[in-house]
Amino acid sequence: MSITQFLFYFLTVLALFSAVMVVVSKNPVHSVLWLISVFFAISGHYILLNAQFLAIVNIIVYAGAIMVLFLFVIMLMNLNASTEPQKNNWLKLAGIIAGGCFLMVLVSLVKQANELNNIAVTMGTGEIGLIKNLGKALFNDFVVPFEISSVLFLSAMVGAVVIGKKA
Amino acid sequence: MPIQYYIYLCLALFSIGIVGVLTRRNAIIVFMCIELMLNAVNLLLVAFSKVHNTMALAGDKTSMAGIEAQLFVFFIMVVAAAEVSVGLAIIVMMYRNVHSVDINFLNRLKN
What does the alpha-carbon distance between residue B28 and residue A133 come to, in Å, rounded to a whole number? Predict the structure, then answer.
């Protein structure tokens, strides 16, 4: 087994285990920390796919900014395991069965799709994930969406302030 | 790596996110599970962009096909950041009104 394959399996197991722990943790702070671990695993996957720009953006934006925001809010509200509202067990079971059925249907669909056979993802090579090429495409072909996203950020900022202000 | 492995991984992450949304009552955890589902989709988009690029490279050695998908992922992250800021503001507002983040309190909205 090559090192790339080993890293793929390691990151996959890490991502899945951490994702399960996000859902089952009683304490919301632990959930946030496990979610950060999921994001680092996904960033590792991006690096394996040679999407370096997205890996860095994922770490900075998700694991850095968004998760700190979540942690702030949780600590502001003083949530912990004892104040955690719980659904009754039948509803939990129904949710798990529904999610499991969804997964089963889609996995069997992918298994039957012969078009996907013999298609391999090349890892560790490729130029499209590099910052130079992405930057050229972003500022040549995608300037208008880029500018619109800045307006979106401004409106989100104003919206958050308006909602958060004591009415 | 066969593309199926990536599809299975992303489906599993997405399903875990769905189970989290369905089984938890804490609004913040539900919100985090939605982020998890967004990230699963992002990973699948990047994997397929690599497949597209590899196929295009067979014909043209300097092809940049597939770069749109990676920019799409970038824009998804931008929108997710905006969404999180507004969503957490709404959750803080809800906590201020009912002193709980239990999503069952939200059914008061229907009257």
Answer: 37
What is the length of chain B? 111
A50 to chain B: closest CA residue = B50
Question: Rounded to two decimals, what is the model's pTM?
Answer: 0.91
Q: What structural domains does chain B harbor? A: 3-110 (1.10.287.3510)
Report DSSP letters for A102-157, one per residue: HHHHHHHHHHH-GGGTT-B---S--STTSHHHHHHHHHHTSHHHHHHHHHHHHHHH
In contact, A123 and A50? CB cutoff 8 Å: yes
- Closest partner residue to A121 among B3, B64, B83, by Cβ? B3
- Nearest CB to A28; choose among B20, B26, B81: B26
Predicted confidence (pLDDT) per residue in A9-34, tens digit? 999 999 999 999 999 988 889 999 99
Domain identity same for A106 and A62: yes
Q: What is the pLDDT of residues B63-111, one digit of tens each?
A: 778 888 999 999 999 999 999 999 999 888 888 888 888 888 777 777 6
Domain that holds residue A139: 130-167
* Domain match, A26 and A94 both: yes
Q: What is the ipTM of this complex?
A: 0.91
Contacts of A54 in chain B (CB under 8 A): 42, 46, 70, 73-74
Q: Is B1's CB within 8 Å of A5's CB? A: yes
Do the chains contact at B68 and A8, CB–CB below 8 Å? no
Determine contact: A62 vs chain B, CB below 8 A: yes
Residue in B with minimal Cα distance to A100: B15
**Inter-chain touch A61–B82, beta carbons under 8 Å:** no
Is residue A22 within 8 Å of B36, Cβ to Cβ?
A: yes
